[in-house]
User: Fold this.
Amino acid sequence: DYFRFYAMKHGDRIFHVSGPARRSINWDANPAKLERWKRGLTGHPLVDANMRELLATGWMSNRGRQNVASFLALDMGVDWRLGADHFESLLLDHDVCSNYGNWCSAAGVTGGRIN
Assistant:
């Protein structure tokens, strides 16, 4: 319910690169980095195991989702919306509000605490 209300409050800002907080961040658009993350080939076992689980099953635990989202955005510096789109295309339990709300949070574009 939280992210449904969050989406109602912020509207389409949850889809903007700068997020609800309108944070200006220079994201990396390197497609090779994104592809390594998607395939679970980052060299970081926790991230890779979660991404491979997603590819194989269409599911990942909530904590796994937070970990891999934070890794893509904060460690790899890749545009968080590309990760959100990837989740949207694979997760069997995908929910737009929860997905984009959580990705905004992981990327630090909510105006709150950065993971």
